[in-house]
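Weekly structure sync - notes
Attendees: PM, LS, DV (DV joined late)
Agenda: review two folding runs queued last week.

Item 1: First target. Sequence and structure tokens pasted below for the record.
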Amino acid sequence: MIDDIRENCFKRISLLTLCCTGALVEKKHHILPILEKRYQGPLKHDGIPAFALIAAKVDEEEKDRNAVLDFDEGNFNYEALIARTYEYPNGSPNTKPLAKSTSSMKISEAMGATSAVPPLVDRVRAIVDGKMRTMADGGIFQVCPLSLAIDEARRLYPRRPLGVILNLGFNDNEEKFIERTITTARMANPNLHFQRISAEEITGIFSASETDLEKVAIMEEEVKQWMADTPRVRNLTKLTLKKLFETKPRNFKKKKDEDEVSNSKMTVKKKKDEDEVSKNSKMTVKNFRSKLTLLKMLFETKPRNFKKKIDEVSNSEKTFKNSKDFLRRSSVRGEVHRKYSKLE
């Protein structure tokens, strides 16, 4: 397919066509028809997650406030758009993304848009998320969208740290931005392993839009030889591959199902916790009412006069003592009476 694109599209570059149509390649030799013959399905699928950066604008008169690039004096406002093959799982961060994203397009449209390098070929027009959009290669925003890749990984795998990033580049124009991005990412992922492979001393000799198949093959062989002959690159690549493949391959569909089951369990647990809290709240209210009733019973009687009570006890003791004296005197008097009777 790549060879077909080179033969039928890139090799038909003409400055005359650029002057007449605004693109170096005529519309009949556009990349999109070649892609549509092979790729007819939707962009979203259950395979390995992937995304591409696109520059897009909505074909409407009103301006998009988030547009960051104008091609023709403000009449064409473009913004970064991520074309992704996946959906975000439940529990994905709700923070504002670095760029808008969608999976609502055909795979041929996404591939054609990322290949529509202005002014090489004409832009791709397609309906995305219910709106007609004009799309072009996202390289006009960022050639190496590493920050977007990290942000997408954080949303796709919210409960997993970043492990390995292997970055392939054609030149070192964005080296400082890449280093800044990795330094920031390592603040949250201290064990992150990063490697960038960029053989600029070789690729710099060739053009990024090279269409000659023999020259492209020569460049590929020279880059392979450079990687094999450079100890630092060779050793770092071995370490990167070891880290990448030291774990078992992941079944992404199974992982998606597991995430859904996990989210269902979390929902059930949350409902159970809410029921438990509700039950405890009802018990707390019931206990509070019981205590309130008890306090009411305690304080609804009149207050006692403790001094009066002490006086009553004291009087009772005196009465009891007087009774004992009376009985004792009565018994003595009775004894005297009996003795007196005997004498008589």
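Item 2: Second target, run right after the first with the same settings.
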Amino acid sequence: MRGLRPYAEGPYVADAMIDASAPYRYATKFAIKPMELSAALGDTTGNIMTRTLRRSTTMADSTTRVQPGETRQLEPNQFTLEGYDTQITYSASSFSGVPQFSFSDRVETRSFSGAEIRQEDTGVGRMVTVQLQNNAADQGFEHVTLFLPTVQLSAEEQSITIHTLAIRTREVVFVAPGARQLQTYAPISLSGTAARVDF
């Protein structure tokens, strides 16, 4: 772009000329007249095709780099909850390397591990389900499903209080003919802690 001279008045058309051999160094700023830039680009009509010359920030922008000492985000792996005569403890892992789930109410206390625990990630959080009754003596099925919300912990705070719910589902299998509802749901409000534990 020979022949271009610094111009102190009028609008800035190009705010920087970049040395291609050193993409991260700013060159001297030029304020260029529109007609001068048009002539330099071979356009004598005065219609300028915009050419933006800017320093690339994809590699050197400090805002995209992980800063030293940055707080690392952690997810909880152990939940201890209770509500309405019900206690539920769920661990995503354990010393044996498999999930653990315990359920207790006024009637019974049950423990589950590994493949006995079904997990599913959904739009409302993770659902963790165990079977409390397996239709023995045609009594139907019974499950309890724990809803785990998304929780963010930090290295400084690895345990927080959460509020969630569990749903106890009963399903009748052997029924007399006729129209009826076969599944019923009993929600249980729960509160307790979500924590990060090293196994």
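Discussion on item 2: The two ends are 66 Å apart (CA to CA).
Action: LS to circulate a short write-up before next sync.
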